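Fold in tokens:
===
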Amino acid sequence: MTNQALESLPIAVIGGGPVGLAAAAHLVTRGLPVKVYEAGGAVGANMRDWGHVRVFTPWRYCVDPAATKLLERQNWRLPEPDVFPTGGEIVAKYLEPLAATPELAGLIETGARVVAISRLGLDKVVSRGRAEKPFVLSIKTAAGSRRDLARAVIDASGTWANPNPLGASGLPADGEAGFGDWIAYGTPDVLGRHRDIYAGRTTLVVGAGHSAANALLDLTRLAETDSATTAIWATRGTNLIRIYGGGDADQLPARGELGAETREMVESGRVPLVSGFAILALREEDGRIIVEGETAEGAKTIGPIDRIVAATGQRPDLSMTRELRLDLDPWLESTKALGPLIDPNEHSCGSVPPHGHRELAHLEPGFYTVGIKSYGRAPTFLLLTGYEQVRSIAAALAGDMAAADNVQLVLPETGVCTTTFSVEGSEAAGCCGGPAPAKVDACCAADAMANDEGKKGCGCGVAA
């Protein structure tokens, strides 16, 4: 294929969520041909699944500049910038209008799942001439299967549909597969469409992140109207600073408020907490679930319970890129250059440095992983990061390397671990778990703990 013919092919964007549509907006703005593939029946399919959840970032942080310009041509106006939308509101008030703009409407195919990507006529073993061959995408739709060609590929498919299992080893716990109808992976709508499933029952929530906190708080609210509803919380780790936080340094106060409410819920005794619990197996007993695991003190069981919410995070599905030459971090499965910057083993606080097309590229020329999938198994991601990622990549694909390399990103100054907020009358007030112990050279409890472990500190005293 000639260079001219290759350049005439569209750039394939996989995923019709916020980052995928932002990529399309930037590419269209630069006059590049685009094709967006969305596996769900409508744009924002993954976000619709947790549409009842209110996000931590206000509207002004939820929209992409290039996408906003396309929308404003249709007299669209940004909702109140400081209001915190739900996932469903982002879909209805931003993604759906964006997908309907004249510039994007004809470029998006829904119900189109990309199941595999390769190079036309070459498997991943062949080196010679790879960059001169177009990508070939195997597409599955309700009408059947087909092959499409593309000049470049931007994978913004996300990780939501590929949850981590309950098993502490990263593998499913023994018996987990048999309890599929009893386990909800992610954040169920406890107060809405799933209310009847949880009302009057005992639910175990597993996980130490924001999805777990949201599920627990919804269950306690449900218990206020149905006293037979109870919740138990289990976490693999014992340090809950990541979810509790502390202080009001976080410029995302909704995120901080969630941490404060979760801490109060546990300390008040409304929700029993089993920390340091590694799940090994599930079994049925008299129509209910018994969860077997280990703690530092030895074997332990939780139950009987009726339901499990597995808020254990997600991981990238790498199956569709098996025939591509990927450059991945060996344990996070993020793009390799991002791994050291976001590794949760080392970085519990601080901000991710601005990064663009160079950090997101792989050994396969013209293939990029963006959005939350670019972070692999690392849990922290903001839409603003994804929007700057695709802006840089679109500039690189357009040949504007000066703009592509001029990566700038101003994230909300958190200066905290993840969730922070001052609680009136609470000893947790202050930065990252409260003040540092007396006569200790640290800005907060989390900073002191990090220093004790030989790390560089949590970064609470440093602006983002």
User: Anything to note?
Assistant: The chain is about 25% helix and 20% strand. The CA atoms of residues 165 and 172 lie 5 Å apart. The two ends are 47 Å apart (CA to CA). The first strand starts at residue 11 and ends at 14.
